[in-house]
Amino acid sequence: MKRPLFASLLALALLPVLAPAAKQPTQSKASQKIDAILAESWKEKNVQPGARVDDETFVRRVYLDIAGRIPTADETREFLSNDSSGKRHQLIDELIDSESFTNHMFNYWADILRIHSQQGGGQNIVPAYVQYVKDSLRDNKPYDDFVRELVTAQGDTYENGAIGYYYRDRGMILDNMANTVRIFLGTRLECAQCHNHPFDKWTQMDFYHMAAFSYGMNVQNNQGGDQLRDLQRMMNSDKSIDQKKKRSYQRALQEIRRPIRNIPVVNYDGSKMPQLPHDYQYDDAKPKEKIAERVIFGADPEIAKPEEKLESYADWMTSPENPRFTKVIANRMWKRVMGIGLIEPVDEFTDVTMAANPELFAFLEEEMKRQDYDLKSFLRMLYKTEVYQREAVANDVQLPADFAFTGPLLRRMTAEQIWDSYVALINPNPEMGNWRREQEALLRGAGTEMMTAALEKKSQEQLLKDVKAVAAAQKGMQEKLIALQKQQTEARQNKDQAKARKLAQEANGIRRKLSGMIFDRVYAPVLKKGMVEKVSLVMPDGMAAVEMKIDSAKIDQSGRVKQDVIRELAKKEDEIIRNEMDRMGVTDERERKNYLGFRKNVANTYTRAAHLSSPAPNGHFLRQFGQSDRETIENAEDAASVTQALTLLNGPVFRMVTNPQSVLSRDLSQVETNEEKIVRVFESILSRAPRPEEMNLILSDAELRGDKLVQDLTFALLNTEEFLFVR
Per the structure, how many domains does the chain have? Predict the structure, then answer.
């Protein structure tokens, strides 16, 4: 029987490592100030900080914290072989400016904002919302501007992806306000929606005063622009049209709108005011009374006209003078770096809340203001402190105020960090995501946008003729569909499934014929007059930019791009992968064919969490390891479970890690001896070389394990606490 290599390595992996001293370049004054404040507090608390971590621990920690994944073996070797005294600060700068940072930060904000890909009708708005958030992070949009844009977002999907913020809580505008105040002001008002807060000063009246600012936000699907809305009003008010015709015209309008119906539009009506519930029980107002806007702290903004309410609300919220806005984001970013906030929970501030280190907290707040809410700059300041580079510490205290902050918190990776670290061992280009799927969505959006624009270009007179023509066509088709439906019912009753399927196909053909007639009659004439949408495809590094023209010949009757466009994208995807193989030096035709299939598979399945559905489907690795379901704010879990253990033991992910085409396997193929392979496995998974006692233990097992040695070692290391924790 084979000896328990897994258990032996687990014990060895937890042995302490002495950190050699290393000289670093001069810190910024802000970073130095943070270290000085903490050093003074350590004296007061009579605690000693941990030692400075070695380069192996640092490189793994900083990749996990900033890039959201372990470094590749090449990245580890490059950093460890660098003799520059400033290499740690240099790496921090490089990672914060990388696409890895964008993807990792997206996961963080997707959890806070509850970005949900599977929202009803969200197939158009959610991709635009995701792109808006990623672009904001990538471009380092000032945080106050980011929040202001979310809170004031109006328009449609194509104009403004930020409308996804209100779309997420469509039909629940009161809940949206409570979430907004909790996320950006660290204040919990949700209890006050139904009654005065039992543990804080907020009243139900306070809740409704705040709700009055954003109550006028309205989320609805595209109705075809002002022309169709005006046409519908005109038909409804025209007494010369009988009710039967009005109903037929209404059905025709619904069919005309069908290709663009899932394009959400958000608009604001400042005159709308919330109404107290019917069972309001306090003596400061009557049930069902309408409530005007008033802020919960600070001076009420001056509002001259109702339409100014939303902008005034956003200005008040994001102002440096707001007593909580800056504090909350400074505390969130401190926790992002150190693992625990100076105030916990980060979203439950009260008037009596005290920071664990008041002097440090005040300094961070002022620095956030001084740096104009530049989150990348703020994070650089925190990561470049000496305290961040010290040994990780366990959170063995009951109260955050007792935590000494002698180093970052020892914590298990998030579900996204674990997944993305596996992906780094599998996928040679994980930041690219599923390129073809993303470009298809881009082109699909362009097609739908063109159809929306086509409707808006039509006059009311033209649209009325279209409605009458579609209504006439519907009448004949409706009679056929009713007859077919009766025949289908009879066929099912007679258990003639073949006939029922044939009749269903015939009915679908009639519906497609109607859709084609609508496209040809309503949309195509306008589209053919030269309306062309130029779409710039997002190309990987090293490839020239590509533009595709989308016109009436390239979209179908539903606004989707046709199959010849999809085939064109598939060819471009193959070209991307062939270029990748050229850079890797893969020349054998059989190997190139195998690699092409492998890359297409991993691009679809084993790409970073930020490129997958948000959240991943139930049963996915990410959900099993605690990814938030995006139903409530910051709902992720980091507790271990039996399901996780079984996934690591029997799941398909490990088979992909050891696939001959994976990043790890290709790195191992460059060396021959067991000793060299062992070193590379350690560098790839734990970002360090094996210690002598580990090497001796593994080599003593080499003969017994034979060809399975490297695979068994890989499996053992992936299941150690050293792999699963950020140390």
Answer: 1
